[in-house]
Amino acid sequence: MSLTRMLRLIQTAALTLTTCVALCLPAAAQYTGTVPTSAPGLNVRLPITTDPAVLYPPQRELTLLPGDLLKISVYGVAPEYTDTERVDLDGSIRMNLGGVIHVAGMSVKEAEVAMSERFESAEIFHSAQVSIELTEAPQHFATVVGEVKGTVPILGPKRLLEVMAANGGIPATASTVLRIDRLGQAEPIIVDIGNDPARTVQANVPIFTGDVITVGRVGQYYVLGAVMRPGVGQLSGSIPVTAVEAVSAAGGLTFPAKGDQATLIRNVGGQRTVINLQLRQIQDGKLADVVLQSDDILLVPSSGLKKFLATQSSGTVVALIVAMATLLR
């Protein structure tokens, strides 16, 4: 779409502003004002985690927690003994034989030893071989949020791809770059399970109870105004796109472009926020670039467009820019 046609569309939209606002700014997506380019989250480009010690920590033994259901079997005695007990909120189980034993925080092997010693000290069984099977574990799970949602029980060793497969896999709308937040670990783990087989193997990291896996969304962004090729750009699942890169992909700025007065409109929590960008200073390395998100709209005004927009209110400007992006879909 040519810049001339775009300007005509703007003028038409200006004459029918009420309709435009009704269509383009529903109640859940109203204009909320401007934020600086230093605002949290705008310049986030998390690096892929490469430290093997972080990616592949030692396998953790499962520890018993309140709510766990245990099937207890005792062998080497006559008659053989079986019992099923649930771990109480105080972390204890109350066996038919052996009484109360605190097991929360123990591994299965440690609980087996504790029960065997209890049977021995109480002279119930001698040299008993205790086996515990964890049949229910409501607190042992990993959580997947974002474009994929669900929980996966973690009752033994599990890998990332297995957890994702249990939730239906990665849809086409999802990013291949996944974030894993782990209890007790300050920094998130960032992995890319993209199309490179070697990278996918490396990204298939162990997943533990309590892990939260965030799956981002891959979408589109829009570059409008004084660029060579205004239009729609695709976000990659594994490679972030910045505002400067988006302008470059659109052929760069045209001669009358006001690069230091660009506008980025972003939907944050259902509300549209305006971010003022100084593209030329970003290109010169004086300001941080902004990483684009799905449905971002980047407008680079020309001198004529700038004069027209200067006569409009901020909410009106947002409505017009969103209308322009909608026409490109």
From TrEMBL:
Where in the sequence is the signal peptide annotated? 1-29
- Compartment(s) of residence: Cell outer membrane
Q: Which InterPro entries does its entry note?
A: Poly_export, Poly_export_N, SLBB_dom
Q: Name one GO molecular function term.
A: porin activity
Per UniProt, residues of the SLBB domain are: 220-300
Concerning its family, UniProt says:
Belongs to the BexD/CtrA/VexA family.
Return the protein name.
Periplasmic protein involved in polysaccharide export
Source taxonomy: Bacteria, Pseudomonadati, Acidobacteriota, Terriglobia, Terriglobales
